[in-house]
Each structure stands twice: as structure tokens, then as C-alpha cells.
Amino acid sequence: MKKYLGPLNKENPILVQTLGVCSALAVTAQLKPAVVMALSVTVVCAMANLIISLLRNTIPPRIRIIVQLLVVSTLVIMVDQVLQAVVYDISRLLSVFVGLIITNCIIMGRLEAFALSHKPLPSFVDGVMNGLGYGLVLVAIAFFREFLGSGTLWNYPIIPASFYEAGYLNNGLMILPPMALILAGVFVWIQNAKKDRVK
Amino acid sequence: MNILTQLSDKISHHFEKGKPLYCFYALYDAIDTFLLTPSEVTSGGSHIRDAVDMKRIMITVMIALCPALFFGMWNIGVQHFLSLGENATFWRCFGYGFLKWLPLVMVTYFSGLTIEVIFAQHRGHQVAEGFFVTGFLIPMIMPPDVPLWIVAIATAFSVLFAKEVFGGTGYNFLNPALIARAFVFFAYPSVISGDAVWISESADAVSGATPLALVMNDATAQMPSFLDMFIGTIPGCIGETSKICIIIGAILLLYTQVASWRIMLSVVVGGWITGTLFHAAGMCPITGWQHLLMGGFLFGAVFMATDPVTATHTQAGKWIYGLLIGILAIVIRVINKGYPEGMMLAILLMNIFAPLIDYCIVKIKIRKRKINISKHKILL
Fold this sequence. Notes:
The complex is a heterodimer. By secondary structure, chain A is mainly alpha-helical.
């Protein structure tokens, strides 16, 4: 069990393995798209792990990357279509980044490192956990960026109007991409400061 | 002073490792070495004897900043009472500006030193003197009415992310004071841009546009005279308005060899050439000389670009670094109307490139010597 909880903490895909950072910076200006992105990646990662694990004995090793890509891209297109049908606004907001899940290193990494050598059920759990580990960081970054940058959470105003009257201002830098990088850096810093880090 | 020394010696053992007050050692050490002579001094074996240490250099920079600072305080009062249409005496103007400046500088030091002390204690090293200059510079490049909590956050951000995460004083590759200003510029643009912020508590009807903003808005007819801009009785930050006081500071820095004359000269030359070219091409109504007198160009050239930590270290590198700062500052000013203060962005950008410039210069030197040696061998 401990093996599967790793991605949430000391084997976190973003903070420790530094994978999938690009999308983490791009979609975290607000909480809503970050959550949707996190769920999309979790679904794709879990399903791809499951399918590849089922096929692992039949895939010829020399063309395994192509097979993996085919499976992942099929899943991503399905997720994209679902998003466009259900939450069109957020799908527009995420724009190319849903399509770019195909190139997310976390997914290919888990397929290569885990699904090809494990049974279907453990692979599925591993996929879910890695997706959640990615999502955790995404939501944490988006929380601070939306709260400090726009004064809202999930598009609801959180900071009362009396604060603004007293001279409080939203931090415009939080909306800009550099702050996502700095916040991600702070989380990496916190992770590294823990004593039980993987060296 | 004797009482202080005795007191310090008396309480020092409480702060040693393992004692209950050890968590305040960095704070104690900072106050102790700031007020008194450190107990460890070089006793023998060192062959270069010089009074110049980091503390001396930092104090020299602070003294060099003083003319511009005192003028700036007075000027804040002058601009304030001028906008209200009142006549005020010299001391009333100065007092008003001083009371504007004092909270700024107190908040800056409190916020920055808190973080410095925490890091020094955590890492087990001393509180370095570097922050004294940074904390002195930050209030001088802020608008007089900037909210104090914004100054506190900006200072904390710059000390933390521009300095401490890279290892503290001497390891920062970006100028912390400029990072604080850039933070305010991007995070809270309404308090640091526009016409309303540069005169403290001005009457609504009076436009407090800086000369730079006037040029950007093609309102060159309202420009203050050359003499006003040179002496500095124009709206602006505390430190940047008076060119004559900045030049006095520059002379002190050059005389004591604290700042590099190569950087200062090349920034000014780069800015002047670019400004003249833009003027000749008809893209900008003002000449190269006027560019040098506007905004924070001269202040940046003298006090910011020459920061020995963030500038280039090779002699040839200093020329390239300075020229590019001057050129970029004017290019940003003229081409991007959204960022009237190009000097800040130009210096920060070149700070990032400074290590690369040094690397290339060193590589070129090594290659030249290799070629020289091979020629020599052939002759032999």
C-alpha cells in the first residue's frame, strides 16, 4: 500500500521527479481549470496504465512507444470530447493543454516504469495515485494564485469588499506565469526540507 | 560605549550553542558587530592591510546616497505644497518629506531584516551587511504614497526570492532593490504607474505626471525646463529626481573606487547613443541628453547597475554590460509605451546575462593565450 501512496508525498511527480511542470504552470491561474485538468490527467493516466498493463504481454518491445502513444492519444481525444460536451467554458480556457496531456511525461513515465511490468489492478491504482499526486500540486498552486491574485476561490469572491475599501489590492503578479513557477519552487523547497526525502 | 561593550560581553555567553537563547544568536551577533568591533580580528599572517571591508563599502554607498535622499525628502514636500497651491518654508517641506520617508524605511528594514535574521540563524552564518544598502535603496525608488504593507511584502519577496534562496548576500544574481520595485510594478501596478502617484497627497486637479510620462503621452509642451530636471524639482521617486545630487554621489563612489567607472560611463554612453539615434529617426521627440536626465536613468546607472555582486566582473565585460543596459533602457522606453521606466527592466535583464558575458570573455582570453603560445613555439 505504501508503494502506491508515494506519488502523493515523497515521489510526487511534479515536486520530486519534476515531470509535467509545463502544464502545471499554464493552467493554474484559477482553481476550476486546475481541478478539471487534474481530473483529466488522472483519468488518462489510470486508463492508459490499465490498458497497457492488459496488453503488456502482447506488445512487441520494439514498437511499444508507438502503441503507448496510440492508447494515450485515443484516451486524450475522448477526454477532450467529454470536456467540450460537459464543461465547454473550461474546455475553452484549457485550450491546447488538454491535447498536450499526450506529451505529459508523467503518463509516459508511468507506462514505461510501471504498467509494462505490473498486473492490471496495481497499474490502475498507480495511475490514479500519480494523477492525484499531480493534481494535488496543481490545486495547491491554483489555490494560492486565485486567492491572492483575484481574491476569489472557484470564482466566488472570498476577500470581503471592506478589505478593498481599506486599501487592499489583488496581487497582479499571481495571475502572471512567473508566479506559478515561483510557487512551484516554494513547494519543491518545502518538499526538499523534509527529512525523509529521496536522495 | 564602554557600558555597551561590558553589557555585550556579559550577555554573550547566553547565546552560545546549547544555551536557551541560542535561537536569537544571529540577531545578537548582528547587533553586536554593528555597534561594536567583532571579537575575532586578524592577528597575524595576513599581508594585505586595508581598512576596506564589506561594512566600509556599504557605508560608503549609503553616504553617497545621502545627497539624493535629503534632496528627495525636501522635494516631496515641495511638490506636495505646490500641488495644493500653498507656500511652505524650507523646513516645512523637508519635515513633510521626512515624515513620508521614515515609515517607508522603517517598514523596509523591519520586513527585510526579519527574514535575513531568520535565515542567518537557520543556516548558522552571520547577518550580512548587504541588506543595509538594499533597505536604504528601496524607499528611494518607491512613490512617496505607496501603501506600507505593499512595501513590506515587496521587500520580503525580494529578500527571500532574489537573495536568500540563492545563498544570501554575495550570491544573488539579481539586484534585490530592483526586484522589490519590479514586484510592486507587476503585482500592484496601480500604486506605481500613472500620473497620480508621484506627488504625495496632491490635489485632484493637479496632474503629477513625470517628465517621462509627458513624453510618452506626446505632451512635450508641458515639459519642465532643463534646469528643473537637472536640479530635480520635478515629481518622481524620492531618490531619482535630482541629477546633481546623484552626480555628487557618483563622484564619491568613483573617488573611493567602490563603484566601477567603466559601468557608469558605458551606461550613459549607451543611453545617449540610442536616444540620439531614436531622435534622429524621428521616433522620439527628445534628444539623447534629455533621456539621460529623465526618470531613473542616472540613478540606475550610478547606484543600481554598478552593484558589484550583480554586475559583470571582467573589465571588458563591464563595457558590454553597461552599454547594453543603456541601449536596452532607452529601447524599452521608446518602443514599449506600457513600461515608461525601462531602466529597471534593462538592469534586471542584464543582471541575468552578466554571468554569461563574463564566461564568454574568459573563454576568449583563454583562447587568445593558447594561440599566442602556439605561435611562440613555432618561433622557437
